[in-house]
Amino acid sequence: MKLVFSEVFKKHTQAEAEEIFIAGTQTTTPRLRDIKSDWGRPWLFARVFALFGISFSVLLYVALDYNNTLMIPGVILTGAFAVPLSALVFFFEMNVYKNISFYETLKVFFLGGVLSLMVTMILYQFVSFSAQEQYYGTYTWGDTISIGVAEELGKVIIVAYFVRQRNYSYILNGMLLGATIGAGFAAFETAGYIYNAGNQLLDVAILRAITAVGGHIVWTAITGAALVAVKKDAEFRAGMLFQSKFLMYFAAAVALHALWDKQASDSDWLFTVVLVTLIGWGILYRLMGEGLLEIKTRQVQISPARH
Predict the structure, then answer these.
(1) For residue 30, which phi and psi values (nearest 5 degrees)?
(2) Does the keyword Phosphoprotein apply (predicted)?
(3) Residue 212 · residue 218 · CB < 8 Å
(4) Percent of the chain whose predicted confidence (pLDDT) is above 90
(5) Where are the alpha helices (DSSP H) in the chain?
(6) Burial of 291 by CB count in 10 Å (0-12 exposed, 13-18 middle, 19+ buried)?
(7) Which of 96, 114, 119, 282 is most exposed, with the fewest beta carbons within 10 Å of its own?
(8) How far apart are CA 48 and CA 183, in angstroms?
(9) Which long-range contacts (CB under 8 A, 24 or more apart) does 275-279 make?
(10) Which of 306, 292, 297, 307 is nearest to 3 (CA)?
(11) CA distances (Å), 153 to each of 15, 122, 224, 288, in order?
(12) DSSP codes joined into one string, 104-131
């Protein structure tokens, strides 16, 4: 993992950044045989995060020191989108196939994000919460599991739609797709939380930004990668959602989500957030390794075509 972040603090040119953003077009997508099956070394995501951080700080300064409420919407948007969009760039860089354009990624971020929220709201109509939640406002395990199933299923349905539409067949593609939809979901949800926070706006924005690295983005990246790992080169079928390998990873995402929501009312919430984040990234690390191994396997399969 140390190797993955080895380029973050090195100096890079604007030309290098622009080269990353033009990946995935008809003229810039490499052939499978030319792809290196090494771990990606992303760095641009850190620059994107820094830009958001500077923008957020300036807007907040103007809003507070000059009592300018017109800056508040900017504070909300930069605070809500900073980590999700930075994470999106991270997974874009980690897609060593370089076969998905940044335009396509942004399209999935916005459309996938809002559609997954809409589908989740529909699924919530079938969720019944406990008397404890209704009367005391605290979740039971049954409540948090129900929330996890509804939200993860809502996002997976949209992941499946884009997988079917574009016929993605590489694990790292599925991971990027899932992370992008999860990032969109997280960004719009966080904007709502910050908007409703009132005087606690700054606290909520910072807390949601810090914890975003282990939440929706990671969970949907897991299920997106797992779905494509099951699909492979075949045409997508709904039955793939019921295959044991996908269900195992989906259950892991739901469990992490349920544990995350349950900690909100517990005194040791920070420990739980760190634990869930580490487990989630551990699962992703495993799937990334599987995705890189897939490259070698596919290159071996096409090697006779060279002769």
Answers:
(1) -75, 155
(2) no
(3) no
(4) 91
(5) 14-21, 44-65, 72-94, 102-107, 113-123, 131-136, 141-166, 171-195, 201-211, 216-231, 244-262, 269-302
(6) buried
(7) 282
(8) 14
(9) 276/214, 277/211, 277/213, 277/214, 277/218, 278/214
(10) 292
(11) 40, 11, 11, 22
(12) HHHHIIIIIHHHHHHHHHHHGGG----H
Here the tokens at position 247 are 């269900």
Taking the complete model, does pTM exceed 0.70, yes or no?
yes
Tokens of 96: 């060593």
How does 150-159 read in b/e, with b if 16+ C-beta sit within 10 Å? bbbbbbbbbb
Backbone angles phi, psi at 5, to 5 degrees: -100, 15
CA distance 140 to 91: 34
pLDDT tens-digit readout, 116-156: 999 999 999 999 999 998 888 889 999 999 999 999 999 99
Quote the tokens at residue 77: 């948007």
